Amino acid sequence: MNITISGVVRRCARAGLFTLCCSLPTFAQTPITVPTSVNAGLVIDAAGPEQRKSLNAIYLIACPNVGFGSGFLLNTGIMVTNVHVVATCTQQTLYGISTANKQVKFSRIILDRERDLALLVPEEKLTGGFKLAAKDNPVPGTTVSTWGYPFGYNGISPLLSVGYVSGYRVDTQSGGAVKHIVVNGAFNHGNSGGPLLISHDNEVIGIVVLTFHFYPPEVKQIIDALLSPRGGIGFGEITRPDGSKQPIMESQVTAMVLNEFYEKTQVMIGEAVASSELAAMIKAHSSELPTPNSEAADGSNRSPAQKHNQ
């Protein structure tokens, strides 16, 4: 079946895309556009008091030339996102951007690949942030939400996604047993790393981690095979973000288009790593983390403006 489908895809490419574009000897591959600024003014102006508290703790997390996702600040001064959002970046290259358009660099990145969680230690002290909820098992049907940057949409402003708890499952793909909260909601690429909140609350019950693909596994295998051809018809060359040139085959062009559909088509089901998993990770790495902010320890409750301007 794989060979038959692959052959059909190749014939379509030759008859369609290749025939259409063979007159163009070269073309520039669009680099992955990673934002360097955030414009959240209109959202903040329209938001209610509790939403503004949440927005002050939301960050866009960017890995230059690779991609970006969402992240959030805890009231301990530590930022949280997913390992796959950090991608190949190090503390020298990764950065965060607040809704006030302030860029944040990090002195340390701690990864837990089994849980797909990353702790980011900011170079400068940040105040405010979310609390971890004492419980992460709301009853099915509970309305939940997340702030994040799906697809970098809205050029670039955080968007609110709302859904409800559908159930729970234990994820074992990475070898361990990780509690996931299953959510019926529009979690798109770019939402990864954002906080899952019970609606109208500022306590984190989970960390958005993935969306489901409804295509069978064979589809991804076909796309990967097309991306790594052993032969075929030359299409031209691509220009990489660093300016270097690379020859490209017509099957690779087809695969790039198919991969966009594969990655960005979804059903309305997403998942979040339960906050108890984050609490366990923080405890395991406590010796590597800075002392929590005094406001997190003493429970002081300054206004969002006071926290944000420090």
Write up what this structure looks like:
There is one protein chain. The protein is of the alpha+beta class. It has 2 domains: 2-30 and 214-264, no CATH class; 41-212 and 266-291, Thrombin, subunit H (Beta Barrel). The protein is 27% helix and 30% strand. The strands form 3 sheets. The chain has a 6-stranded antiparallel beta barrel with strand order 1-2-3-6-5-4. Strands 8-9-10-15-12-11 form a 6-stranded antiparallel barrel. Helix 1 (2-21) crosses helix 6 (250-264) and helix 5 packs antiparallel against helix 6. The protein is globular and about 60 Å long. Residues 1-31 and 297-310 have low confidence and may be disordered.
Helix content: 25-40%
The coarse silhouette is globular
Strand order of the largest sheet: 1-2-3-6-5-4
Query: What is the level 1 CATH name of the largest domain?
Result: Mainly Beta
Give the N-terminus to C-terminus distance in angstroms: 60 Å
Beta strand count: 15
* Domain tally: 2
Q: What is the chain-wise order of helices and strands?
A: HHHEEEHEEEEEEEEEHEEHEHHH
Write down the Rg: 21 Å
Mean pLDDT: 80
